[in-house]
Amino acid sequence: MSKRRFTAVLAALAVAGGAAVIIPATQAAAAPCSSYQSWVRGQSYQVGDIVRYTDGRAYIAEHANPGYDPTVSTWFWNPHTCETGPVEPEPTEPAGDFVVSSAQFNQMFPGRNSFYTYAGLKAALSAYPAFAKTGSDTLKKQEAAAFLANINHETGGLVHVVEQNTANYPHYCDASQPYGCPAGQAAYYGRGPIQLSWNFNYKAAGDALGIDLLRNPSLVQNDSAVAWKTALWYWNTQSGPGTMTGHNAMVNGAGFGQTIRSINGSLECDGRNPAQVQSRINSYQRFAGVLGVPTGGNLSC
């Protein structure tokens, strides 16, 4: 899988949603944030509409849009000044059978995009039951830390959801494949925690997960669990430019450096981009610390 680079903030997230009553800006400029109707993904909004986002804050539509996320579609929305009350923190959940609790997840990603939910990650885990459940408790936590550290690097701290360089979009269709590009030539741009791109990767991931991503690639940017599943698909089944998957690198003792190689080794390893490699290592060391485990050896590639 060729590397996919994130360059800016997400421009659009749109899925079907229910209707909501919106208070026009002219009627609600001084109202408390709690008085506005909740934003609904996929609901059409007009210029001047004000909504209350999931973080309790208000946003005003600067341009009409079909329900894009106010915190990431910043051309369409701007923060709206209103009387803010206390913002309720995201509820924390026990880890259950996952080695990372929601509190630890939030500690790792304090500025993350609301799209990347802990619940979505937990829901995705069933697709690859060996992930973070192989070997000793220490090894399980090391694998989780390694996976999330690479995700952190790829997404700028779980901020970016889709590739923003739209000029790249038409290049991700390999029309020579027998199934072509049924969602359109420019539909297979990078999405998700390990940015999935190219029609053949959407097909391969979809086939493995039992989801028709070839015809519905937007699911990766609209459904948090699906997005996390595609990242776990790559981590557990794809070696990329390396010689082993990220999962095998951790559980078989090859070390964190080989996970870097499997994700972006052709551009970063063997001295090509030591600063990027060190950034990944720094994240892994920090996340291992959050989970209270040593990093193990062979950190670099």
From TrEMBL:
Protein's recorded name: Chitinase
Annotated source species: Streptomyces uncialis
Signal recorded as keyword: yes
GO molecular function: chitinase activity
InterPro entries according to UniProt: Glyco_hydro_19 (IPR016283), Glyco_hydro_19_cat (IPR000726), Lysozyme-like_dom_sf (IPR023346)
Domain (Glycoside hydrolase family 19 catalytic): residue spans on this chain: 101-301
Pfam families: Glyco_hydro_19 (PF00182)
Residue positions of the active site: E154
Disulfide bond entries: C173-C181, C269-C301
Keywords: Disulfide bond, Plant defense, Signal
Signal peptide residue numbers: 1-30
GO BP, one annotated term: defense response to fungus
